[in-house]
Amino acid sequence: MIEIEDQLGRKIKVKRKPTRIISLVPSQTELLAALGLEKEVVGITRFCVHPDSWFQEKTRVGGTKDLKFNVIRDLNPDLIIANKEENTRDQIETLAKEYPVWISNVNDLSSAKEMIRHFGEINGKQKRASEIIAGVETNFSKLPIPTNKLPRVAYLIWRKPYMVAAGDTFIDKMLEMAGFENYFRSQKRYPEVYLKEMENDPPDFFFLSSEPYPFKEKHFSEFLQYCPDAGVELVDGEFFSWYGSRLVDAPSYFLELRKKLKID
User: Fold this and answer.
1) Are strands 163-164 and 181-182 parallel, antiparallel or unpaired?
2) Which residues in the chain come in under a pLDDT of 70?
3) 3-state SS, residue 93
4) What is the number of other CB atoms lying within 10 angstroms of the CB of residue 49?
5) pLDDT for position 138
6) Are 231 and 207 in contact (CB under 8 A)?
7) What is the rounded distance in angstroms from the CA atom of residue 103 to the CA atom of residue 105?
8) Which is it for the CA torsion 52, 77, 237, 258, positive or negative?
């Protein structure tokens, strides 16, 4: 057994190379796959859709916030991977009484790279983790920042009620790195907002994320009713909110999005 520290500063004891891992976070499940831990991962959530083969074949232990404890106990994990924001505190505390639970706390690109490095160290995949981190750093370094004034973007994550990603979120940091200004940066976390309040000072764009609420083009009119001069765009939420190996490809997605919106 070895003692390791998670991103909350908690110290836990785990096997030197865990062989029965459960991941409770979709982006971290994808990272575990990128690290080559096919045999070691025995359980995932129903939202862990990447890679597709894992989604089809791995045992599902419920959702990120409604875990099935009986299924988890049947899998007898020697490591559970969770996240401060995406999982429910009381459920994680219950699991932590029975199993080693490593909790990530990712708020920006730096903490995302730290999490990737930790995963490599815990699982004996340091080389592959370093390769992923290098890919993230290289690709973000090639992403130019627009020379003109940054367009203000309202990033919608939910409908009925409308909710946005505001300041103090990973999405906020990705918007900034992608070359956008978060219209709600002065607020915190994921506030409820009202479109009518934006009429006199509309954002340049509404970004309607593909997750957690699956926005579609049919929702465009709701935003144009109050802000007819704003642009409305469907965006792939995985590139803005997934903080694992998907970060390698995020810069190219951001660049294509800017080209589509004619931002330079």
Assistant:
1) unpaired
2) none
3) helix
4) 16
5) 98
6) no
7) 7
8) negative
**b/e map of 212-230 (b: 16 or more CB within 10 Å)?**
ebebeeebbebbeeebeeb
Count Cα neighbours of 121 within 13 Å in the Cβ-side half-sphere.
12
Look up residue 217 and give its DSSP letter.
G
Task: Let me know how long the chain is.
Answer: 264
CA angle 179, 141, 36 (to 5 degrees): 110
Token reading at 87: 């999982």
Distance, in Å, from the CA atom of 208 to the CA atom of 130, rounded to the nearest integer, reads: 33
Name the residue among 255, 259, 243, 240 with its Cα closest to residue 139: 255
Of the CA atoms within 13 Å of residue 189, those in its CB half-sphere come to 4
Q: Please report the domains of the chain, with CATH numbers, ordered by start residue.
A: 2-139 (3.40.50.1980), 152-260 (3.40.50.1980)
User: How far apart are the C-alpha atoms of 202 and 148, rounded to whole Å?
Assistant: 19
Residue ranges of E strands in the chain: 2-5, 11-14, 21-23, 41-44, 59-60, 79-83, 101-104, 152-158, 163-164, 181-182, 205-209, 231-235
Residue 165 has what pLDDT?
Answer: 98
In eight-state DSSP terms, residue 167 is B
Quick one: CA torsion of 34, 39, 42, 48, rounded to 10 degrees?
20
Amino acid at 227: C
At 211, list the tokens. 């997750």
**Residue 262: both structure tokens together:** 């004619």
* Helix orientation angle between 109-122 and 170-178, rounded to the nearest 10 degrees: 120
Residue with tokens 């990033």: 155
What is the C-alpha to C-alpha distance for residues 149 and 54, in angstroms, rounded to an integer?
43
